Amino acid sequence: MGRTPCCNHEEMKKGAWTVEEDQKLVTYIQTHGTGSWRTMPQKAGLQRCGKSCRLRWFNYLRPDIKRGHLSEEEEQTIIRLHAALGNRWSSIAKHLPMRTDNEIKNYWNSYLKKQLDIKGVDPFCTKPISTISSSSDSEPTTTGKPKSTDMYMVPSKNIGRHEPNTNQQGSSKLESSQLLNKVAKNIAGPGYLDAVKSLKLVADNSTNDDVVTKIEFESKRDSVIQHSHEPNFSSISSHSSTSAQLLNKMATSLSQKAHGHEAARAMFSKLMESDGKSEASSANGHALNLFEDEPKITTIIDSPSSPTLIFNEVLTHSCFLDNWQCFSSNYISFGNCGASGDDSSVSEINLRSSNSFCIESHNYSTLCFLDENVPSDSAADKSDEYLNEILTCEDEISKYIQYL
DNA sequence: AACCTCAGCAACCGCCAGTAC
DNA sequence: TGTACTGGCGGTTGCTGAGGT
């Protein structure tokens, strides 16, 4: 038995909606709410298909949509998201408040795609076409999982749906790099540099200079850097996590630690000392409020997860561990790092042995080694899967050894 | 003024996944 | 467990108006 049609299309009106029809629909929804689109047209006195009513409401009539010119910021967001998500317009629309998927889709098809084409930019990776290798090196494997050394070119994570309202945060004026530098002043400890070395290894494998976060070491002391062993995060892309996000994540991370409240107060106070007084008070106040309340942010890792995104998570969390050994001596599952949402992939960072951790997502996997001792099979997870991961990470291992 | 082209946009269509029964 | 229903999504169509010839 086939499916019964949602309505008798022959009796239904098609085409542009009249003002009268709009009014009927709005009046009905204001009274009865949405839902039951199948029966709604009859109840509302409309000769329309239920799907047509739903579409009209969501794309045009509902009050919480913004129409008209898209800002440059919105435009950039669309470009970045499209590079990561493809034609998943509804997912993209979730990151653009008050914009509909249909509007974004139309804008892309009628304008943005052409603009990128004119500029010679590949719309699927936001990188100039001329710089893209003609080989399929960066293509995922047939299993959908890229080679371990491959990095997808993905947008930064500040597009998360949980992005806080930065208007309420004085600290949002800080670039992520600035913020991290400030944080770096407040942490020190044995093993910290090793942690960053490992993270650098991940970052160095990235291939998209424009978008992917990178860290560069500076041997000489920078005016920003107070400790000789601390790295300079100056080259962290401004596209990476916003300061607001970082603050939220820091608070979330700290809340899970003993004496986290005290640590957070001390850290945020110190963090803001060097800033203007008014900004410091507002930022500090917000941070404390944020911290005393339930943490606002878990984490956003948009699909497809990327090393960049995970990298940021590791960096953020590692900053607040007493030292790197603390991280390496305990099994740490960054459950909160891997967001599971309607369109998020689940990523996980697990300590796989005493001297390595594994970053996993559905399309990416690599190992990072915390010291020069490449783990033996016995130290590794016993599963074949994990052993295979080791074998596919030879590049990372050799690079790391060379680095050391 | 008439015609043509094209961008912008609303709307339609078919498909799919989740859910209820 | 299978079927029907429902809402949602993405691809596509077709209308409209502005601008050019």
Automatic annotation (TrEMBL):
One of its GO terms (biological process) is response to other organism. GO terms for molecular function: transcription cis-regulatory region binding. The keyword Glycoprotein does not apply. It comes from the Eukaryota. Residues 165-175 have a biased composition (Polar residues). Residues 129-143 have a biased composition (Low complexity). Residues 9-61, 62-112 form the Myb-like domain. It comes from Lupinus luteus (European yellow lupine). Keywords: DNA-binding, Nucleus, Repeat, Transcription, Transcription regulation. It is found in: Nucleus. Residues 9-61, 62-116 form the HTH myb-type domain. Residues 129-175 are annotated as: Disordered. This is Uncharacterized protein. GO terms for cellular component: nucleus. The keyword Lyase does not apply. Its main location: nucleus.
